[in-house]
Amino acid sequence: MKKLLQLLEKDATLTAQQIAVMLDRDPQAVAADIKEYEKKNIIVGYKTIINWEKTENEPVSAIIELRVTPQRGEGFDEMAKRVYQYEEVSSVYLMSGGFDLAVIIEGKSMKEVALFVAEKLAPMDQVISTATHFVLKKYKVDGVIINDKSKDTREVISL
């Protein structure tokens, strides 16, 4: 199970046939395992990683630190649920250390991100404080190096 999941996590485009060859297994058995993992919510989605710097509409990303008061009987889970409901939020993590929740969001501009924090996150009753860190450049996302100059496919034209 672990090796199959690791292969899919690294490259979600792999087919059951390709994975079967890599694991020396029957393709139908691999396909059945994948379906079962999806059904049990072990595999919760598939994702494509985009290098937005090479597009015309590069979003602004930020990591927001939240210090919150946990709710009685719910701990941090209810607060995390309230936060991850917003479409701007791409990830929410419970953290150890100086803050409780790490919230990763994307917006069209720094102003849009700042307004989201000021108008949506900061006013929540359980929020004690926020700290916003804007992502200036991404080098590696979900295990994939996205700014490797040696893999740049732009054609160089010499005159």
Overview of this protein structure:
The longest helix is centred in the first third of the chain and has 13 residues, at 27-39. A hairpin with a 2-residue loop joins strand 5 (140-141) and strand 6 (144-145). The chain has helices at residues 2-10, 16-23, 27-39, 77-84, 110-121, and strands spanning 60-68, 89-94, 101-107, 127-134, 140-141, 144-145. Helix 2 packs across helix 3 (27-39). It has a four-stranded antiparallel β-sheet. The protein is globular and about 55 Å long. The protein is α+β, with helices and mostly antiparallel strands.
Distance between the termini: 54 Å
Structural class of the helices, strands and pairings?
Answer: alpha+beta
Helix fraction bin: 25-40%
The tally of helices reads 5
Find the count of extended strands (DSSP E, 2+ residues): 6
Radius of gyration: 20 Å
Please state the average pLDDT score.
89
Strand order of the largest sheet: 2-3-1-4
Order of helices and strands: HHHEHEEHEEE
**How much β-strand is present in the residues?**
15-25%
Looking at the structure, what is the overall shape?
globular
How would a crystallographer describe the biggest sheet? 4 strands, antiparallel
Low-confidence stretches: 153-159
In short:
The chain has 159 residues and is an alpha+beta fold.
SSE order and pairing:
Layout: H1 2-10, H2 16-23, H3 27-39, E1 60-68, H4 77-84, E2 89-94, E3 101-107, H5 110-121, E4 127-134, E5 140-141, E6 144-145
Antiparallel strand pairs: 1-3, 1-4, 2-3, 5-6
Helix pairs in contact: 2-3
